[in-house]
């Protein structure tokens, strides 16, 4: 049985993720963490969730806190704390503001819960994964981000609709940045186990249009309803289930890579990884030349932004002379 802690639990994503995670059979304890001053809201969330447990008939011990040290003993700590983008903003515009929040939280979690798995949702998620890895002092296998898992699910759904097949028949991946430079892997896309390019209808597939839809999906949802909630919430729950169930599924998450993809590495970015109770293990793969080129570009973009954010964080944390 396992303890799961959610930072940013009063937010749109944190709150729905808590509900989705509470359905996972391995979860026996859940801690909702919010900022000081939000005690009443957190208490209300606990009462509301407890009612849903009663209606559903499951038994999760639920509590809340405004202190990160209470996360001690967690099997997984999910960080969804931080500012979301507003319409017209890019996820990368949030980098420095959210990096300060994540660095601070990661340092405390690393000290109080050295055996935990730290799961980043806060955007820009690839950069936040690198910040959390550095400031927590945890091992690379213990720190990962939602990465391009949600993007991959969005593409999977579009392909399933196009071919009028059940989503479970489609396997596909998007790697790279959870952002504009994401790279679809058509070479790793199958329908009913058949390589997609071997289907006679493949040439008519509106690939560019599909990828554009995925790229702009978060932005469009935020413009229409203020926040993306159900997609990320369910995607987060899938990853928690995969870890706690020791499932060894291969999902596309933001993870520290050394050189697993065509020798490219030393960065945190979305890649296929085997995921189990021990954490996240990037899978070495070979992909098509144009995919490698796209991935290289995406890596350079994220590496530059990560370096810039790390430098600013260090300057910010330097004591005044
Ligand atoms: N990686 C992904 O696929 C996705 C990432 N996100 C990201 O998750 C984050 C949360 O999104 P929402 O829940 O929609 O935002 P929200 O504004 O509804 O919630 C933000 C949460 O962070 C907390 N927070 C804000 N500033 C804080 C600070 N200085 N210290 C500690 N906690 C702080 C708030 O109290 C609240 O609990 C955003 O960065 C968003 O971009 C959201 C959806 C998907
Ligand atoms: O678009 C956003 O800002 C939220 C997010 O990352 C997503 O839903 O993909």
UniProtKB/TrEMBL annotation:
Function: Catalyzes the reversible oxidation of malate to oxaloacetate.
Family: Belongs to the LDH/MDH superfamily.
EC number in record: 1.1.1.37
Residues noted as binding substrate in the record, renumbered to the chain: 85, 91, 123, 154
Record-linked InterPro entries: L-lactate/malate_DH (IPR001557), L-lactate_DH_AS (IPR018177), Lactate/malate_DH_C (IPR022383), Lactate/malate_DH_N (IPR001236), Lactate_DH/Glyco_Ohase_4_C (IPR015955), NAD(P)-bd_dom_sf (IPR036291)
Keyword line: NAD, Oxidoreductase, Tricarboxylic acid cycle
GO annotation terms (biological process): lactate metabolic process; tricarboxylic acid cycle
Lineage: Archaea, Methanobacteriati, Methanobacteriota, Stenosarchaea group, Methanomicrobia
Name this protein carries in UniProt: malate dehydrogenase
Residues binding NAD(+): 8-14, 98, 121-123
Active site: 178
Enzyme class: oxidoreductase
An example molecular function term from Gene Ontology annotations: L-malate dehydrogenase (NAD+) activity
Limits of the Lactate/malate dehydrogenase N-terminal domain: 3-145
Record carries keyword Oxidoreductase: yes
Domain Lactate/malate dehydrogenase C-terminal: residue ranges: 148-310
Superkingdom assignment: Archaea
Transmembrane segments: none
Reaction equation(s) it catalyzes: (S)-malate + NAD(+) = oxaloacetate + NADH + H(+)
